[in-house]
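Project standup — Tuesday

K.O.: blocked on the structure for the chain from last sprint. Re-posting the sequence here as requested.
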Amino acid sequence: MTRSSLSIAVASAMSAGLLLTACGGGGSDTSDKIQPSATAATAPTASASATPSATQAAGRGAPTFDLPSDITVDFKGFDSSDPEKKAALTDATYAARAVIEFEAKVYTKETPNFKRFWTGVHGAEFADSIISQAKDGAVVTGSFHYYSPVVKSIATGNLSVQYCEDQRKAYSKDSKTGEVNVTTPSLSDFMAWNLLMTKGPTGEWQVFDHTWVQGAKQCQVA
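H.V.: unblocked you, prediction finished:
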């Protein structure tokens, strides 16, 4: 899908990774240019440590996600022998699931999971964009695949988590009629994401900013 085909205005207002900006092909935007977020977020200082419908990820205190039965989300390689990287990768999967959960139904306010893993002004604007977009009944359906994650250290104790997404079998759907906009797979279905993450008050890694590339050739798989 090319999520941008759903809401170009929203994508222009906020180039949000995982927004309805790229679902099963047909899009013409295959640029490898990094799209910065609308908010020039300042990296916060990391604080002290600390699938099908209604799925709960493994681990104590893991969130439960209310995903419709027509949506599947899977992650490959999101693990590490380094405890800190492993924690960041795990929370990055939660952040991605939280957005899909938010986009899968029509909401009038932030979901608890989204608020838990997306923080700051950027997170709030991202939420407003999804809510505004859903007013027209546009939601997502299908399969979302995430792979090839890389964790890097950045300033002030924060981390970046980079990964690929395959949306060839992900589509937009009219929540009012149930009609699915099935599109032809293309290079634009392959996305490259870079989440900038900081530790929140509870010790979980939260996304405070991100960039994305639509039509990322380095993410293209057979």
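K.O.: great, moving the ticket to review. Residues 3-24+73-219 form a domain with the Nuclear Transport Factor 2; Chain: A, fold (CATH 3.10.450.50). The chain has one domain: 3-24+73-219.
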